Amino acid sequence: MSVTQISGEKIIMQDSLYTKVDMNQPVQDAIRNRRSIREFSDLPVKRELLEKILNAGIWAPSGLNNQPWRFVLTCDRQINARLAEQTSYAHIVSGAPSLIAVYLDREIMYDAVKDHQAAGACIQNMLLAAHELGLGAVWLGQILQNKEQVNEILQLSDQYDLMALLALGYPQHRNQQSRRQPLTDFILHEFGGDNP
Ligand SMILES: Cc1cc2nc3c(=O)[nH]c(=O)nc-3n(C[C@H](O)[C@H](O)[C@H](O)COP(=O)(O)O)c2cc1C
């Protein structure tokens, strides 16, 4: 195997195939450095940025490419205050300049597990996009215990099943810490490959 470097890109030659590796690794970087942000400045988030975040969400994979996700955006302080009453994380919801409620459309769903997995992929894409844009966000799940009330506040029928509320804004600080167990804790078995 040989490795060549051409204008910032590393080209790994292997068996006449080559793979481009971006030396800056923006995806790896965003995955590793994204943190749940729960305290926001008062700065509003421009609609254009919210749209970029939603676009990242809809480019997630979904089973049969059925794209079962639906969104409600709210930057309305009164609506946000009512949503805040539905969760023990009220301070996060009422303190965020923007909220994105992520739904599954029951009429589009075809397989509960796969559609929920697609919603998760969509949400993670949005969290990473928010991070890349210099924003902060947190995935809020506790509010699901009051999903009927949330639908009422957001004027939606039960055709729409709430998956999460994302609180978004400019981070007040970036002191958030988070830990992961070592990778070896998660690998149950490894068969073959080039692990020495
Ligand atoms: C399904 C799910 C539900 C979550 N619900 C909440 C929540 O209700 N409130 C909250 O503050 N954080 C919530 N989180 C964020 C997690 O607490 C957070 O991702 C975890 O502690 C790891 O921290 P990190 O995101 O900074 O790496 C949720 C995350 C997921 C994936």
Structural commentary:
With 196 residues, the chain is an alpha+beta fold. It has helices spanning 26-33, 47-58, 77-84, 90-95, 112-132, 147-153; strands at residues 2-6, 9-14, 17-22, 69-74, 98-105, 136-140, 160-169. The chain has 2 domains: 2-26, no CATH class; 34-169, NADH Oxidase (3-Layer(aba) Sandwich). It has a 4-stranded antiparallel β-sheet with strand order 4-5-7-6, sandwiched between helices. The chain has a 3-stranded antiparallel β-sheet with strand order 1-2-3, with no helix packed on it. Strand 1 and strand 2 form a beta hairpin. Helix 1 crosses helix 5 (112-132). It is globular. The chain starts with a strand and ends in a 27-residue tail after the last strand. 26% of the residues are buried. The model is unreliable at 1-21 (pLDDT under 50). It binds flavin mononucleotide.
Radius of gyration: 20 Å
Q: What small ligands are held by the chains?
A: flavin mononucleotide
Helix count, DSSP H or I runs of 4 or more residues: 6
- Secondary structure tally: strands: 7
What structural category characterises the helix and strand content? alpha+beta
Domains, number: 2
How would you spell out the order of helices and strands?
EEEHHEHHEHEHE
CATH topology-level name of the largest domain? NADH Oxidase
Strand order of the largest sheet: 4-5-7-6
CATH class of the largest domain, anyone? Alpha Beta
Using the 3D structure, state the CATH architecture of the largest domain: 3-Layer(aba) Sandwich
Estimate the mean pLDDT confidence. 90
- Portion in beta strands: 15-25%
Gross morphology: globular
Which segments are poorly predicted (pLDDT under 50) over 5 or more consecutive residues?
1-21
Q: Considering DSSP H and I runs of 4 or more, what fraction of the residues is helical? A: 25-40%
Main sheet attributes: strand count, strand direction, barrel closure = 4 strands, antiparallel
Span from first to last CA?
18 Å
Q: What name goes with the CATH superfamily of the largest domain?
A: NADH Oxidase
